[in-house]
Structures are given as structure tokens and as C-alpha cells.
Amino acid sequence: MQADRPRHVGARVQRVEDTRLLSGTARYIDDIRLPNMLHLSFVRAQYAHAKILEIDTDGLADLAYPTIVFTGKDTAGIAVTAHQDFPEMQFSEQPVLAEDKVRFVGEPVAAVLADDPYDAEDAAELVFIDYDPLTVVGTMAQARDPEMPAIFDNWKGNIFIERQMKGGDLDAAKAEAAHVIRRTFYNQRQTGVPMECRGVVAEYDQASRVLTVWTSTQIPHLVRTYICEELGLPESRVRVVAPDVGGGFGVKGQVFVEEVLVPWLAMKTGRPVKWIEDRREHMMASIHARDHEHTLEAYVSAEGRLLGLKADISVDVGAYSTYPFTAAGDPGMAAKVMPGPYDFQAYEATFRALATNKCPLGTYRGVARPSAVFSLERLMDEIAAELGMDPFEIRLKNVIRDFPYKNVLGFTYDPGSYAESLEKARDLLAADIAEAARSKASSDTRIGVGCALFIEQGAHGTPDFTRRRVPIETGYIAARVEMEPDGEVIVDVGLQNHGQGHETVMAQVAADVLGVDPSNVYVRQGDTLTTPYSVGTWGSRGGPLGGGAVHEASKILAEKLRAIAGHLLQTDKEKIVLYGGKAQVDGAEDRFIEIRKLCRIALRNVDQLPEGMIPGLEAAYSLDGSADGTYANALHAAVVEIDIKTGKMKLRRFLAVEDCGTILNPLIVDGQVRGGIVQGIGSAMLEHFIYDEECQPLSTSFADYLMPLATEIPNIEVHHIETPTPRTPLGAKGLGEGGAIGPAAAIANAVADALGISVLKTPLNGNEIWRLATAIREGE
Amino acid sequence: MRPTPFEYHRAESLDHALALLAEFGEEGRPLGGGQSLVPMMNLRLARPAHLVDINGLPLDFIEVEGDVLRVGALVRHERYLKEKVIGERFAAFHDAVQWIGHPTIRSRGTIGGSIAHADPSAELPAVAMLYGATIIARSANGERRIAADDFFLGAYMTALEAGEMVVAVEFPLPPAHSAGAFMEISERRSDFATVSVGAQITFSGGSITGARIVATGVELQPIRAIPAEEALSGKPLSACEARAAGRAFAEGIDPISDNVASSEYRRSLAAELTSRAVEKACQRALEAGQE
Ligand SMILES: Cc1cc2nc3c(=O)[nH]c(=O)nc-3n(C[C@H](O)[C@H](O)[C@H](O)COP(=O)(O)OP(=O)(O)OC[C@H]3O[C@@H](n4cnc5c(N)ncnc54)[C@H](O)[C@@H]3O)c2cc1C
Questions:
Q1: Which is deepest, A19, A167, A257, A538, by most CB within 10 Å?
Q2: How far is the CA of A717 from the CAs of A242, A649, A758, in angstroms?
Q3: What is the ipTM, given to two decimal places?
């Protein structure tokens, strides 16, 4: 009916939130200042594994200003727990303040409160803790060693959980195989590094018995539920607000001990309490990511068909299980997504989460998929090399082409453009591939081209979480759409915008359905007082599920507007179209009524409503993901130039051919893809969180933890293919994480191509490239 | 990431600054561009009780007097890129500056701060050694002139004494028949060097008559590459055997090892960058000869 009219969805609409974010008028957690507020500074563990013998706070008494200090004795029993409901799982409890033991450097041991943040930090230095150091479990090998002491009482060994996933007949695949190719791959430990660190402010109002918690989070409702369950408070009287959040990348998608402790302190002291994390704390004690080791064994036919795959997956998940995705989140995800975009029907994965005395592992953009894709896509190139095939040829031979496709684990993929993206990239790279081939004659400079094909399961529905038995439990996003008497629209959605551009996209979606301009739509998020209960923003669900929920809720409202307009224009409501601020009779441009008039009638001049119609303009919708989610796909390709003598690697070119279904806003899609790729380049080449043998962190500032900078990033080319999914109302698939998933694999493949060797681990920094180039340099 | 309490003093004159520094001794620190000191204070790695802000002093001069280039302690790194005498007479210096941080850092950081801070991989200490510069230090007791070769004692350790500050660095103008180059490898463009090498040669009649080569990232202070310097003496500019000179230097060193680079990698870089810096210097010498 409206096909010929320009729509807001799909248009290059500028991000409305940027005015605020780029002009310094946004309000972040540190901008929240309340009267009579106490500032919190933590005393954090200096040992990775130690008994706490004594906490001496006598020094505080001599200070010229008052302080209050709390330790684990005061908060005994309050903890963050996150269990997967499997009998194999060993449980951890992370106390909000360490009780008898510390289990990683940076774990909070005491909370010092003062009127001034500088004083609080000075005072925290005066708390002396007497430790009795214990044996440190510092590596995956040590965690698997049954001789090592367990880091939790009544644990057997240091494995949180070890399980299997399988499908098909692997023995048959192995028997049929002409080639068996086995490699072990490793991705280093990282941390997510949002620009804004964490922070929590809490205030308890005695009169209303309402606790308000501001926190820099992606998941306000989940924080509320956790606080209420742990502190025994009614959810009706706890309000969690995420103000503007300066990036999260998954890091802020967990409930942290600090988020439970700060509200407790506010209630205990009767004063507002504020904690603003500094970068050092953030690096060592928020959450870490990656640190995966995968051994893959591929069974391949003589013609290069992948017949089966065996995987052994270990992840160093650190000292505690994190809420709500648990210690098994990363290894389980790696096992689940490993089969990727290829057509084979025999698979077996053994995966385990290993406990060590390190910062806990949690979600970071891509969640295990960057590592799984690194391993599988490196393996594809290893297979190609062994069989003397071209990397594109081996992929085209094995890629899934018929949809829907049921994979070896029973997940059904929605339609995608896997083969098409490969062919498109091969064309785009033809000149680079030729140049790379020519450079093989040189022992000074080598060029390499590498690609990574992958899919990104996003917008997961409740059944996916039920299968995983994780505390997240569900995956729906709810939206409530309301119109005001002046025709303005309010959209309250259970997402939490922390850079994704939701405020723009949700307005585009609602505007199209309601026939108004996006500038008339006010999108509110992140406050449990105004938004409907939802799981927040993570897992690439904002566009497909958040957008879908806004779309469906708006449709309900549009239906009512049409009914009122039909009544007033004396025509069938089916004939009414909403467009350009008007409700008009289709095909009769002069027969219309302004939408804002309809709103006034619905809310104030209700005597003009059709007989029996209930006044008001409000609609709500909750949209769950489909059982298997949506599968976006992308092909990432890197062209590298390597100085053989110095190990210096330059990224000459990086391109992505991506398919996220319906593109809701091309500017935002490109931004998401590019931002993710920059992070992926960091994973591939630079970012490395290093611990020494005693698990002392060595990468606690940006001088030691190297982030990619503009000088290292080439122009990133983004190409699109659009294959809408039937699984979400708008045809959109999840897209937020994809950018970060492919680069490590693509760059490693480019290095392998340039140097003609196996690349088995990241980061590919100068020293590592130099090492890999040894044979060429020495003329072997 | 909040500094411990400190008192801030704005120096009104050089004498005032020196008097304040004398009064505070070990407890006081000059504040230059703040690009190293302030981060260290925020991390509580530095805990000065008194900061003496010298930014108001007239120490931002670059002047040539006779055959000496005098650079005041407050000259910001970015300025060398625009200064004609640096571009024309101090090519290695000019090369090196482009490797210091990024423009925001370069427009605040000062030569006095960089020299006094003595980061093991910083460029300007290496440049000072490369040109045989003299560090002019002042205290309430008077002036000391310290040769760059004797100034850098280790990581963040210099010959400066408590109460003393750098007021200027004097670079002898390189002779007419000389050329230089500076090469660096770092993880990211703006990072401190993994290894850097500066080379400065003098020549006559198409042959090298003298060479000075300085490397960072090998030990905890910049070092001279004496074996390479010796190897080059008398070699023709057009076939200087730079590679052999690099190897001669690298064979005799036992470089530091850390999370950025192993000892072996640094050794290899020291050889390669020495070779490249020398080759570039020779190439510049030949190009200058053709004009
Ligand atoms: C992100 C970043 C990247 C950087 N990258 C590089 C790089 O690649 N290479 C590099 O060389 N540097 C780099 N730096 C450091 C930068 O060059 C600093 O400016 C420099 O090291 C110190 O100069 P400053 O004037 O800022 O000194 P300040 O930070 O003010 O002081 C440093 C120290 O010197 C003392 N001091 C200052 N002035 C004097 C004086 N006149 N006499 C005696 N003592 C004095 C101070 O008391 C203090 O101890 C980087 C800095 C940053 C933040």
C-alpha cells in the first residue's frame, strides 16, 4: 500500500544521539552528583591467591577527615553467583568484598568511604592487609593439573565445567577421510576497554523506601533483579538507571559485585554512595575476554570436502563465574558456533572452562566467536595448503548454499549469502592476490591476502538460553509506544543504548508505522522506571528484536489511529494510510485528517471517538527471538605487507562483505561494522592482557595494553548484500558483534599467505611476525 | 588514579624556580609539559610533594650562536618540525621527532622534560647523544655543563642532582660535509621505540671520515654503537657496507627483553636499523653532493 512512498527505515538518517554525545552535553555516571554523597574507593587484592590474615584499618583513625570502612566481615554472604544448571558444574561465589581469601589481583577487599573522592583514595592506601600467599593457579595446564590445589573449598580440581556437544557419525567421517588435519590454535587474553569505565551511584530514600541505582550498564533490568534477589528488596521499589553509557562492548553486560555492594552501602550508611572506576581497576578487575585454546581435527575427502570435525576447546575463564552468562559462556559458545558456514554433518566438541587466579572472563563483542572463527578459518586455509587448493576454492566447495539449512548440532540457519560474499570478495581482491603471488619472490617485503568467512548467530530466543541453562533465562525485548495529545510519540524500549544508535533507529521504525517524522519520536531507554522489563542490549539483538518490538507495538497503535480516522472520514479503516503526519484515504489525497488531531481526540476530545472505543494511545509488545536466532554472514579480507627484516606489518587493505538482512540504517550498519573491525584488528595485532607467573597483571594501563590507533587502521571498505530474514518483523538480523569476529582470522590468514607458513596464535605483533619470518629472513 | 596531595608553585623567574627547587630538594619537581609527570602522578608512581611549574619562564628559545644550536628547556617537540635549521642541518633530529608520540603530545612535551625524564626509549636523549650535545643544568649553586654521553645513567636516571634543572641543550652544528638519519620500529606509530637507531656521518671525497651511531631499546639508556662507528670509517659513501656495520654492532650487545620484544628481536632490529640509518645517511650525503 505504501510501497511507493519514501520510508525512514533503510534511509541514511543521521544519528540523533550524536548531538548530545559529541557536544559534551551527555550525562554519564560521573556527572551524577547528589547532596551529602559519600565517595567509595576500593582496597583491592595485591595477591592473586592468598588467605587474608588480618585487615588493619587503624591508620584511618589518624586522618583529619572522617572515613568509614567496610570489609568482607560486614558483607558476609552477599555475593555474585552464576550457575549453569548442569550436574557437572562446580559452583563459585564471588563475595562483594573478599571474605577469607582473595582469588585474583584486583578483587575488592575493603571499601573506604569519605566525603571527597581524593580523600577516599588516600585513605584506602592506609588500609593494610596481611596476606598468607597460596599456590597460584596461573595457566590452563595448571588448572587441568589434578595435583594443583583447588581455588575453591570443596572443589575437585579447577575445572568449572567440561561437557560435550555432538552430532552425526564422526567415526564414519574419519574412516572416509583421505586427509586428517589437526592443529592447535590460541587467542590471547584481552579486555574489552570501553572508553568510559564502570561506575555506580546509589541512593536510598527512607520516605518512599525506594532505592535508586545509577550504573554504567547494558542491562539495567537484570541488575535490578539481581540486586533485589541478593539484598532481599522488592523489585517495585528498586529503580536502576543507566545514564549515557560511554561504550560497553559486552563488558557492561554482566552484573558486577560493585553493583550489588554500592546499593548495600547506601542503605547501610543512609547516604548516597558513589563509585567511579579508574582505568587501572577497569583493566585488572572488570572482566577479561578471549584466552581460548582450540585443537581442531578435520576429516577431509580427497577432493577437499569437509566430512567431519573434532574440537577440543579450553578457555581460561579466571577466578569466578560471571552473571548472567556463567563461566561456561565462552567455551560453550565456541563449541556451538564452531561448525560455522560449512556443510558437514559429523561433529564432536569437548569444551571446558578452566578456573585460574585471574580476573573473571565475561562477554566481549563477539563472545567466543572471534576465537572459533580464528580456529576454523585458519584451519580451512591449512586444509587448502595441504591439498594444494586456493583458499576461496576450498570455501566455495564446502559452503552452505541451500537454505534453510539444519546444521550438525540441529540449529537451522535462515537464508544467507555465504557463497555470494566469497565470490564478490574474490573479485574485489583480484589485483591484491596477484600482487601477493608476485611478492613471494622477495625476501624483503611480502604481501599476503587472507579471508575469513563466518556467520554470526544473533537475536537468540529463549529456547537457546533454556538449552544452555544459564541464568539469563530469556531473550525477549519489550517495547511500549505511546502518543501524546500533541501527536508526539514516546517509545520506551528495554534496550540500553551505549553507542549503537538505537535512539535513531527506533525512531525510524516507529515513524514509518505511525506516519510521523522521526523527529517527533522520543526514544527512552535504560531506566527501569520508564521502560518495560527486558534483558538489555547484548548479543546483537537491538535491531532485530528491539526494532521488531517497536514495529509491532507501533502497528497496534497505528491500527487504532486508522480506526479513529476511518470513523471521522467515514470510510473503512482499511482504506486509511498513515503518512507524512496525515491519516488519509488511500488514493484520495484531499481526504485526510492530521495525525496530531487524532491524538488529541484519542486523549482529550474523546467524545469524538467511535462508539465504545477506549480512550488513550498506548501499545506494548514483547518480541522474543526465534529458537535458533538469526544468522548474519560476512566475509572479511585483509591485505598485509610485511617487512621481513623487522617484522613490521602494515595493514594495506581491509574489506568486509556483510549481510545483516534488512539494513535499517546504512550509516549505522557501516559504523557498527567498522568499529567492530577496529577492535578485531586490536585482537589480531596488539591487545594483550599479560600476567606474570604469580598472576600479577602487567597490562594495567594504555602504556602496556596497546589499543589500535588511527595510525594503524586502513580505510575499511564495507560492502553489503541484503538477504532479509523471515524470522524478525523487519527482516533484520543481528549485526552488532560481527565486525569484531572476523579480523583476527583474516589477518592471520593473510600473514600465513605472505610467509607461506602456519599461523597458530595471536597477537601478531612485531616480535611474532619477525619470529614467523625467520626462515625467509635467513634464506632457508 | 588520583595523585597524592601536592602543592603547586608557579615560578615567576628562573631564580625563583631554582630557589623553590633548592628549598624542596628531593620533594620538589619541575613541571614541564606534564606529559610524563602527570600520568605518573595519577598512577601514584610519582609522589612529589611540590610541583614547580616552569612553563612561564623564558626558556622556549631556539637560537644559533656561532657553531652551536641552543635549545631552551621549554621548547615543545612539535616545533622542530617547523624550524628551518633543524630541517636543514639536523636531518636525524628531524626524523626522530616524527616518532615522538602524536601531535597532541608533541605540542606539550618539552626537551627539558624529555631529557630529565630519561625514558629508556625516548628519542630526544638519543638525539642529544647522537650530536654530542651538552646539557646545561642550573641550580641555586650555579651552572653545570654535562656532556650527553655522561648524562643518561639508566632508566629514568640522569646526572641531575636534587634542586637542579635543565635550562637548555646545546647542539654543536654539524660540519658542512655531514649527513644523518634516524630509524625506528615501534608497535604503533606513536609508541616509545622498540628499537631506534640514529646515525650521523661526516665525509670527505666520497668516503666516510667519521660516524656516530646511537641506539635505544638495547639497554636501559641510549648507547653508542662503537663497533659500527669504527667499521664505517674510510668506507665509500656509495658502498659503505652498512649491513656489516649493523652486524658488528649487534654481535656485541646483550639487549633487554620484555613483553614487547625479546632480546633476540631487539638484537636483530639493532642490526637492521643501524644498517638502514647508515644507508639513509649515506644516500643523503650523496644527494647533497650532487646539488
Ligand atoms: C601517549 C604518550 C606517548 C608518548 N610517546 C613518546 C615517544 O614516543 N617518545 C618520547 O620520547 N616521548 C613520548 N612521550 C613523552 C613525552 O615526550 C613527554 O613530553 C616527555 O617525555 C617529557 O616531557 P614533559 O615536558 O612533558 O615533562 P614532564 O612530564 O613535565 O616532566 C617529566 C620529568 O622531567 C622533569 N622535568 C621537566 N622539565 C624539567 C627541566 N627543565 N629540568 C629538569 N627536570 C625537568 C619533571 O620533574 C619530571 O620528573 C609520550 C607521552 C605520552 C603521554
A1: A538
A2: 34, 19, 27
A3: 0.96
